[in-house]
Amino acid sequence: MNASHKILHLPEIQKLRPQAADAEMGLLSSFLLMPAQVGAICAERRITIAHFCIPAHQLVFDALLHLWTEGLAIDFITLTQFLRDRGRLEDAGGAAFVTGLSTFIPTAANTTYYAEILEEKRLLRELSAMGEEFARRAIDEQDEPHALVEEAAARVCAIAAHTVAAQPKTPREMILEATDRAQERVEKRGQVDFTMRTGLAGLDEGMSGIRLGDYVLISGKEKSGKTSLAFNILEHVVFEQQKRALAVSLEMKLPEITDRMISSIGRIHFTNILNGWMTEAELKQFATAGTRIAGGKFQIRDDLQSLAQIVAVFRQYKVAHADFELGVVDYLQLIDADKGGRDDTREQVIAHVSRTMRRLASELNIAILMLVQLNEDGQVRESRAPGMDCTAHIRIEPGKEEGRKWARIVYQRNGPSDVGIPLAHLGHYLRFEQCASEATCEQAPERPMREDPRKKSWGND
Description:
Elements: H1 3-6, H2 21-33, H3 35-44, H4 55-69, H5 76-85, H6 94-101, H7 111-140, H8 145-161, H9 171-187, H10 201-207, E1 215-220, H11 226-240, E2 244-249, H12 254-266, H13 270-275, H14 280-294, E3 298-301, H15 307-320, E4 324-330, H16 346-364, E5 367-373, H17 385-389, E6 392-398, E7 404-412, E8 419-426, E9 431-434
Parallel strand pairs: 1-5, 1-6, 2-3, 2-4, 4-5
Antiparallel strand pairs: 6-7, 7-8, 8-9
């Protein structure tokens, strides 16, 4: 089949974009009739020029929104003059069109209904444009198929995420919900753990657990044990607390991750697994650990590289598994942000990735452990944004003795910051464990001269 035959179906989607001209004019007319009230409705429902299909209507709405935002008087005279001063009056249909808007409808009572219609048409236009784009890209066969599917799924989720926001709760509703939560906690005291634990007593005590919606950084220099600590936490959450998790590895492939988990859970020397020198006892430990891992409620993905893919997979996993509570990403600087801007600096790209993942944790109501690499100065490489976005930051620091590390809580929103937790690092098992006692660990090392950008105090937001 030649190229000309491949694109025969494309004209079917080259139709007039979904639109509702009368509803667009109805909302513009309502804005002129009751500017204060309609402006507030548009702001609350996030109505933008993208909700208008007709260019002239976009210009008029943009002008109205500007006048409303600036607190200026709005009527057909001020609107006409505003457009004239900017040389856009004729593009907006001329003075006669603007004047006609003020009498297009007799009342602004149906503004909310007009806004709903425009939102529906906007969604249809975005889906139509996206479908056309991905149809062309699929026909061109220049993209890797699985990556194209993941990107398409992410784009659909992004469109859905910009739908109308839920009605905000009243103070009374907030207190009623808080009372219900408190009552449930009292009734189930000691029976239900509402947080996720790391499995390290000192760290759990210092952080009071990890909560849904948290965005926790685990940082360290190269080979400091970031991945080991993150997967130790995942293992405890999955196998001890029976919660569901999803990990994304951008550095290690699945076979290596699996071997590392078996070594950690089975207490088998990692090099013995790699070179096949396991003893009979270790082979039994291997089988026992493998059986336990096989029954875990988790998934590990080593095939994702872009931010769009990761976001899409997290959302899809949450839809498929409502009990999904913990996400792990290893590590931030390896994520392809897909921003596409030629002028974007590396710092801006890292900031974009971090803030997107922070919002994703809140959106899906899951905790996300984000691993980040530190430079030689002990600072997050390339950007300060991750440290500003996080709800907690755990930095792995070397101890003075062999097999000793420190997990320093650089910052946390729900407790004291700049707290050092001594840990035993069992490197041959790829595990961290709590020191048997304070006496077995040396004093915490002095923190680097350059401090974390967050203020070190109790409960800062």
